[in-house]
Amino acid sequence: MLASYLVNKGKKVKILDEGLDPVTPDVLRDEVQGLEKPYVFGISSVTANIARAYELTRMIKDIFPDSFVVMGGIHPTVCPQEAFENSLVDVVVRGQGEIPMNVLYERLKKGEGYADIPSITYRNKEGKIISNPNGPFLKDLNECGLFPFHLFEKNLNRYHLGFIMVTRGCPYECIFCSARSITGRSYLILSPENVIKQLDVYIKEYKQQYLYFMDDIFGMNKKWLKEVCDRMCDAGYYKTTKFSCSLRSDCVDEEVMQWLKRAGFVLINFGIETVTNRLLDLLKKNETVEQHERAIELTKKYGMRVGATFILGLPTETDEEREANYTFAVKTKIDFARFNNAACYPGTELYDIAKKEGRANVGEKWENLNPVSALVESKDPLPYVPLTTTEDVLRKSILRANYRFSIRPKSIFLFLFEGNPLWFSLPHKWYLKPAEYYYIARLGCTIIANNSKKLIRSLSRSVFGG
Ligand code: B12
Known about the structure:
The strands form three sheets. The chain has a six-stranded parallel sheet. Strands 1-2-3-4-5 form a five-stranded mixed sheet, with helices on both faces. Strands 7-8 form a two-stranded antiparallel ribbon. It starts with a helix and ends with a helix. The chain has 466 residues and is α/β, with parallel strands linked by helices. The protein contains 18 helices and 13 strands. Helix 8 packs parallel to helix 9 (222-235), helix 13 (319-331) runs parallel beside helix 16 and helix 16 (391-406) packs across helix 18 (434-464). Bound molecules: cobalamin. The site of cobalamin has 33 residues, from strand 1, strand 2, helix 4 and helix 6.
């Protein structure tokens, strides 16, 4: 979206995605061919890959000493000082990058100073790190335009195109979520006309049969939601494409469910997080267990599947409260559930609590900050373990909840025949494609190899108890 905004403002932008291929000096040399100096490199990073982002600044400066390196994204926004201490960055753009990056780029290309640009952190001539106050951020998401697929053209076939975002931000204040560091409590929407234009690209041009609206809260603005659903219905997308989205339990009612169902939604995801009102209050979730139950019931009533995420290992959580999450998921007939470990991201209240308790174990380079660590990663410690339990007990209970939930016949059936792009999904009619058997077997073996000891222990515990 940042790139799209800059392109709309007439800037030349290229995107390199390390999720696909590592960036090497040769790749960088290739990419700058034909571009005018000074080269301006922008690096985006969440906490989990910040060490690599710092390494990239050194690689860039090594090859192009007179280039300019800007960092942005959630981690540099929250820890700008750290970025200067650990990398060769020139400027950190804090918060939403569209406006400050556009101004910065223009100044750099004209050889002008940038010390007065709001929302940036930089090193002044005396070597002091200065953080300018925040300036105006984007007020209208439509200014970003549609997603710039053309910038990904070379590798488009290597992406899963089942994801779309049409709003930005969330006005709530959950203590575990760090998205607020970027968007504050603002909430922006793409106009219904542009949502449809964007959907047209996904559905008509790229023939997407399944699309997940990855917005923080898709249904925050009811008037907008109705208009979007009505237009989706009129466009007849439901004939070729299934949709899913994430909603808050307190946003849904019979009307909302009717609109979503008519528009072609088949799955609604809820951040349940935890299933006692005591812990929901502690998380400042501003929702109750009863609202969660009602939202799940309503979703089912309208014939849609329910996806849910839970966070295990919250401050002061007892063993019983933790175990109650799995029981709740089964009792309420949730269709897709994932049980994550609490991750104390910097800039969140949960991080402050973890620090105060002496239980923030983020790693030397923040490498432990992984919310699915218990499930996929056996070597990195959990980033946070509350005072009420131990790492071993917490890990096992997260593993047990995930495995017990996913080895139920219903979950296996759903995985094989319906899929859920938020977790894993199989291609349409996968059973007619031999290669898919190989991929499923390989995935199963990898998970088992990563977790064999823990798996055997937790399965035997769930079968034999104790
Ligand atoms: C879509 C999404 C994903 C997608 C895409 C990831 C991505 N890198 O964008 C997928 C599914 C791949 C994903 C994976 C993960 N995600 Co995620 N994801 C999100 C989500 C829901 C939306 C991101 C978004 O578009 N935000 C809206 C835009 C406006 O914000 P933004 O991305 O930060 O970008 C703006 C500014 O930061 C800035 N900016 C960003 N980069 C740059 C670069 C430059 C040069 C400049 C100038 C500015 C700039 O300008 C942008 C436009 O305004 C957020 C929650 C949220 N609402 O932010 C979580 C979130 C980013 N994810 C999070 C996490 C933890 C992860 C994973 C580590 C989970 C895991 N264990 O696998 C991985 C990491 C993958 C990776 N390498 O990035 C956390 C990050 C917390 C943190 N402090 O690190 C978030 C904030 C959710 C949370 N729990 O609080 N995620």
